[in-house]
Amino acid sequence: MVDLRQMRYFVAVAEERHFGRAAERLHMAQPPLSQQIKQLETTLGTQLFERTTRRVDLTDAGQLMLDRTRQILADVDALAKDVREVGAGAAGVLRVGFVGSATYRVMPAVVQLARRELPGVRLHVMGEMLTPQIEQGLLENRLDIAVLRPPVQSPELLLDALEGDSLVVALPAHHRLATGGGPVPLAELAGEDFVSYPQGSAVATITSEACRRAGFRPRVVQEATETSTLLAFVGAGMGLALVPDGARRAAASPIAYRELENAPEIGLAIAWKHGSRSGLIPPFRALAHRAVGEVRHGQPSLVHPPSPDQQERP
């Protein structure tokens, strides 16, 4: 059976590509380290390293082992940190993921409300994620709850709608469409260079479908996972982008925003795994709904989340 110590030894050798340097990093002698790696390979029944006189390279199995082991060790370290914090007096720890376009409006309001009204709860927030990444994190129990852009693929996730947001077109300041009144017809963007969230993300999927209905296929010249990076590319003149209206607050770059005719809409929702036992999910949902109300109306909102029997399945 593989133990955590062997995992840490393996990662050190895989990252250093050298047993001697890995041994120094681990503050141990090289022979015991080599023995532990051989024992690990025997336990797994496969070779993890290709050894030469000068360096050590990963086999295909070794690369898979490295990817999975890094995640396991990160989860173990996060678990230890969470347990210590609860033991030190925190009422609980909630691991929250959120999409990049929620960074600039909703999440700051949620975090401020949580600090004020749930002072004993520690929020571990992981932002600038895409919906597919968030979905995987929830299913693998690396996240407890998230604010994402539907749809999701797994029936194991529950959704609670927060708000809808229209897509707008973000343009370099010098673009021919940067000035003007009234909404821009989507067909007017045919033939333009687009910068986009990666294929498979919620916004990219909706953008692609809207452009198809308008009679063209967007010519994507660059992708970016983070909203801030995407808008930086727009500001640098690489192309235009369709983004949720709430992302307007993200950019310090010289960018113009124009509304679109018959603008596609994209939702924002809270998601969590069916059967989750965390008692912090209901108060987080309540705070998220209040945060959306405060952002929308500029004052505390009386909006409440639906009761459990009103939870929406994807």
Number of helices: 9
The Rg value, from CA coordinates, equals 24 Å
Can you tell me the residue ranges where pLDDT is under 50 for at least 5 consecutive residues? 300-314
Describe the main β-sheet briefly.
7 strands, mixed
What's the helix and strand layout?
Blueprint: H1 4-16, H2 19-26, H3 30-44, E1 49-51, E2 56-58, H4 60-87, E3 92-99, H5 106-117, E4 121-129, H6 131-139, E5 145-148, E6 157-172, E7 193-196, H7 202-213, E8 219-223, H8 227-235, E9 241-244, E10 255-258, E11 265-273, H9 281-297
Parallel strand pairs: 3-4, 3-5, 7-8
Antiparallel strand pairs: 1-2, 5-11, 6-9, 6-10, 6-11
Helix pairs in contact: 1-2, 1-4, 5-9
Name a few traits of the molecule:
single chain, 314 residues, alpha/beta, 7-stranded mixed β-sheet, two-stranded antiparallel ribbon, 9 helices, 11 strands, 22% strand, globular, disordered C terminus
